[in-house]
Fold this sequence. Notes:
- It is a single chain.
- By secondary structure, this protein is an alpha/beta fold.
- It is 52% helix and 12% strand.
- The chain has helices at 17-26, 34-40, 47-56, 69-78, 80-101, 138-149, 153-162, 166-171, 183-201, and strands at 5-10, 31-33, 111-115, 130-135, 175-178.
- The chain has a five-stranded parallel beta sheet with strand order 2-3-1-4-5.
- Helix 6 (138-149) packs across helix 7 (153-162).
- Adenosine-5'-triphosphate (ATP) binds at residues 11, 13-19, 117, 144, 148, 179, 181, 183, 186.
Amino acid sequence: MGKPVVIGLTGGIGSGKSTVARMFGALGVHWVDADIVAREVVEPGTPALVRIAEHFGQDILQPDGQLDRAALRTIVFKDANEREWLEALLHPAIRDELARQLQPDNYDQPYVLLVSPLLLETDQHTLTARDIVVDVPVETQIERTMRRDNNDRDQVERIIAAQMPREHRVSRADYIIRNDQPLADVEQQVRELHQELLELFQGQ
Length: 204
Ligand code: ATP
């Protein structure tokens, strides 16, 4: 079989990306989580972390050599130029590593999933042939995220306000999974979409 086609899976915070990814996983579909890759590219010993320490100074590292994420967040939150510098470094590094991991060896399905909250906001969507959006009403998003992370409403609302608006995200979708339903119904949507994607990309 040739290289698998890459399908994007995105949605706002707490919309159910991980839940839906696991449902595809149960059908034998491999997925790569962009949040995990974003951490991997700045692990000790990576070129990106070396550049960050050169740029911001050794104080940006913890005693064990790990990136001090809280310190970095504080800097880039205050200074848009520093944020741009960091994004110009990290986005290509993340994208390259995603592209590498999205080509697993001996993989026997016609497609793989790239699961990413920033799929449509960054150039990650240039890696994908089609994009799936996991969609729930904002109120559901707020309630589920508050419950999962033990966060207060204000904090969750601020995160949602900083993300792409729901209507905009949905307008960019090739496929929508509605996740304001019982899990069994969501699983049914996933099975149907999986079938459609198999038919579309089988033999390519
Ligand atoms: P994040 O962007 O914050 O990583 P996510 O989009 O991956 O979140 P999940 O962690 O999959 O979202 O789901 C958010 C919460 O909602 C979890 O606690 C999950 O168990 C719950 N959840 C997801 N789908 C449903 C559903 N259909 N019914 C009830 N609860 C759900």
